[in-house]
């Protein structure tokens, strides 16, 4: 069962609305026989259904806590989707609560910025990149290849 909770978490600039998802939602037609073959062939690249595209408007992020470690999925104003580890590599902060600007998210705790395309921080205090994951949007459903690190 999916629980989407939209709550404004920022006051500076454009607020990123965080949605908490308790576990992946099996969307309509989310699992096909092709998916099953892919998962069987590549067990490390489990596809996680995040939510429907219309549940994640541009400028917002969703935290998927059903996986460990949790991931954050961002929908940029340009219409791109990115999935990264949700926890900042500096300390324990949720990047889904951060500020989204272009393809960059700013950590809400100490303001390190991470490039969502590469996971690299642009400056201290974080020095270690976050992992990024491939995102697939198919039939209006956002899915992440969890376990398959993109960068
Ligand atoms: S917790 Fe993210 S920069 Fe410190």
Automatic annotation (TrEMBL):
Q: Does the keyword Iron apply?
A: yes
| One GO MF term attached to the UniProt entry | metal ion binding
Source species taxonomy: Bacteria, Bacillati, Actinomycetota, Actinomycetes, Pseudonocardiales
**Xref: InterPro entries:** Rieske_2Fe-2S, Rieske_2Fe-2S_sf
**Family annotation (Gene3D superfamilies):** Rieske [2Fe-2S] iron-sulphur domain
Full protein name: Nitrite reductase/ring-hydroxylating ferredoxin subunit
State the UniProt keywords alphabetically: 2Fe-2S, Iron, Iron-sulfur, Metal-binding
What segment(s) does the record annotate as region Disordered? 1-39
Domain Rieske: from-to ranges: 48-144
Q: Which superkingdom?
A: Bacteria
Span-the-membrane segments of this chain are none
- Which Pfam families has this protein been placed in? Rieske
